[in-house]
Amino acid sequence: MKHYTFLLLIVMITTTGMAQDCQNPITQANFQTGFNQIATQTTNEKKLVRSLELTGKDCLTSAQVKNIAVLFSEDTYRLEFCRAAYLATFDRVNFYDVYDAFTSFSYALRLYDFTRNPQQPLTPFVEKPIDQPKEPIKPKFANIVYPAVGNYTGNKGC
C-alpha cells in the first residue's frame, strides 16, 4: 500500500507541473535514449519513476506514449503513466492508440474517463480485500421438546 501511495504522490506532482500545452514533441533520438533507460529498469516502480521524469521534461507523441506503456507488466502502473503522459502529449487526438496497450478493458476505460476530464482529482486504485473464509453457520433449532427416536416403530431405512 505504501508503494501505491508513493506512486500516487509522484503522479500528482508531475501532473500538476505538466499542465502546459506541448508545442514540439521530443526528437526520435532523445526518445530512443529515454526509452532504453526505462526499458532497462528492473521493476515497475523504477520504470514509472523514469518514465515520469521523461514526460516531465519533454512532450511525447501518442505512439511514443504507447511504446512506453507496453514496457509495464501491470495495468496499474500503465494507467498511472498514461494519466501523467496525457497532459504532456503532443497529439492528443491520436491518444486512442494508447488504449491498445492495456491488457484489461477496465483500465482502458479508466484512462478514457480521465481523458474526458483531466482536471478531476486522481482517485487511487484500491484493491478489493480478499474475503476471508467464514466459519460455518451453526443451525439454530427452536426450543421445543422433540420426540425420542428410541421408541420409533414406523418405517425404517427409507
In short:
With 158 residues, the protein is mainly α.
Topology (elements, then pairings):
Elements: H1 2-17, H2 28-39, H3 44-57, H4 62-69, H5 75-86, H6 105-116
Helix pairs in contact: 1-3, 1-5, 2-3, 3-5, 4-5, 5-6
Task: Explain how this protein is built.
By secondary structure, the chain is mainly alpha-helical. 47% of the residues lie in helices and 0% in strands. The protein is built from six helices and no strands. Helix 2 (28-39) runs antiparallel to helix 3. It is rod-shaped and about 95 Å long. It starts with a helix and ends in a 42-residue tail after the last helix. 25% of the residues are buried.
Keywords for this entry:
158 residues; mainly alpha
Counting helices, strands and paired strands, the structural category is mainly alpha
Order of helices and strands: HHHHHH
Query: Uncertain regions: pLDDT < 50 for 5+ in a row?
Result: 6-19
Give the helix tally: 6
pLDDT averaged over residues: 80
Which strand-content bin applies to the residues? under 5%
**C-alpha Rg (nearest Å):** 27 Å
- Whole-Å distance between the termini? 58 Å
The biggest sheet amounts to: none
The amount of helix comes to: 40-55%
Tell me, briefly, the overall form: rod-shaped
Count of extended strands: 0
